[in-house]
Design brief:
Layout: H1 2-25, H2 42-54, H3 64-68, H4 72-85, H5 103-116, H6 124-127, H7 131-153, H8 159-171, E1 177-180, H9 198-202, E2 208-212, E3 215-217, E4 221-224, E5 234-236, H10 244-270, H11 283-308, H12 313-321, E6 325-327, H13 338-341, H14 343-353, H15 356-369
Helix pairs in contact: 4-7, 5-7, 7-11
Length: 370
């Protein structure tokens, strides 16, 4: 009996040890979860969207712009370009000859995510597409917007554009001004690596000239706050003005400088995705989202400009007759220039851009002018 018991116990331990050894040598692969298929009836989602916003007797025609952030003709123009030039937005049939999501469904999903900053799954019930599909719609949409419209709506300013900016600056009392810069848009910590002044340093920027108090200047400037350095291309306010002239200049400078903050505020109000936490962790994709928001904003401004422009065309005609800020339209960047080829000339221009004396003299002349 004892021998039988010992033999049974030994066999049990041997089998247990063998089982543990086998498990260690051949670990069980985790069971893959079976993908759950949800029949979302995407055709019904497209028809509902069409009836609500795009049919002649649509349900919500009066609030289309508020929900799509643009007028219907502009939105349909974007949909048309994407559906004909970007393969992802072409409506195709699958292996069962069933139509996929329409271009309007995909573009609406992306626009709503950008406009409201909503999560990708927020539109599943209405537009009938999964969270992963919504994220892909956003990614492909911003890529398509940047690819198709960047050259027209995110281009560098032309000499004509610069002249118009100079005219506006002159109307507002700041001769030679072409805009404002705020540290939230152009981080002061990386200013030395910013491409803002690359064209000037490389000798390919259009040439400007203007006179203040009888003194000539040849570089346009931006209005900035006090955190920026004293460069010839920046005009800062006066933190503690000591006389009425300096106080008036500080007031004017701070009022005009708010333009860039207002512009960014409009962009955030129009596209909440700009101010909300990022939906993607990829730097390139987030960059495309930001560029697409700016491009769409410019397209909307162009489409609606006649309704709220601040300046009368006649005003520019009056300025042209006695303007003191001018762009040299005869200058061509195609002409070989030593500024592009000679390192010494580049250093000279850089020193001039960063010249504190020019900054102080320009600020003093503007104080007297205003």
């Amino acid at each position: 009996m004892d021998e039988y018991f010992d033999q049974t116990l030994n066999n049990y331990f041997d089998q247990a040890i063998q089982n543990r050894f086998d498990q260690a040598m051949n670990p069980l692969e985790p069971k893959k979860k079976k993908r759950v298929h949800i029949e979302r009836k995407r055709e019904e989602g497209h028809q509902r969207l069409w009836d609500d916003y795009f049919r002649e007797d649509a349900t919500y025609p009066q609030i289309f712009r508020r929900r799509f952030r643009m007028n219907k003709p502009l939105f349909m123009r974007i949909v048309e370009r994407l559906s004909t030039e970007v393969p992802y937005f072409e409506q195709r049939r699958n292996g069962h000859r069933r139509l996929g999501l329409s271009a309007i469904q995909k573009c609406t999903t992306a626009i709503r995510m950008m406009a409201y900053g909503s999560a990708a799954e927020a539109f599943d019930e209405y537009l009938r597409l999964a969270e992963s599909t919504a994220m892909l719609c956003l990614e492909k949409f911003v890529e398509g917007i940047v690819h198709l419209f960047r050259d027209e709506y995110l281009r560098r300013p032309t000499p004509e554009d610069l002249q118009r900016l100079l005219d506006i600056g002159e109307i507002r009392g700041f001769l030679g001004m072409i805009g404002s810069i705020d540290c939230t848009l152009n981080d002061i910590n990386i200013l030395d690596r910013s491409p803002v002044f690359d064209d000037i340093l490389q000798g390919v920027a259009p040439k400007e000239k203007y006179f203040i108090n009888g003194r000539q200047y040849r570089m346009a400037y931006y209005l900035t706050d006090g955190i920026y350095p004293k460069w010839a291309t920046f005009v800062k306010s006066i933190s503690m003005p000591q006389d009425p002239k300096a106080s008036l200049f500080a007031t004017y400078q701070e009022v005009v400088r708010k333009d860039v903050e207002r512009a960014f505020g409009v962009l955030q109000a129009r596209f909440a995705i700009v101010k909300n936490p990022a939906l993607m962790l990829d730097k390139v994709k987030n960059g495309n989202i930001m560029r697409a928001c700016i491009i769409l904003h410019n397209m909307i401004v162009e489409d609606e400009r006649d309704g709220y422009t601040q300046y009368d065309e006649a005003t520019f005609a009056q300025v042209e007759s006695n303007r003191t800020s001018e762009v040299d339209f005869t200058y061509s960047t195609d002409i070989p220039s030593n500024l592009r080829n000679m390192m010494s000339d580049t250093i000279t221009i850089q020193n001039e851009v960063c010249d504190k004396k020019i900054h102080d003299r320009l600020q003093a002349d503007l104080v007297e002018h205003i």
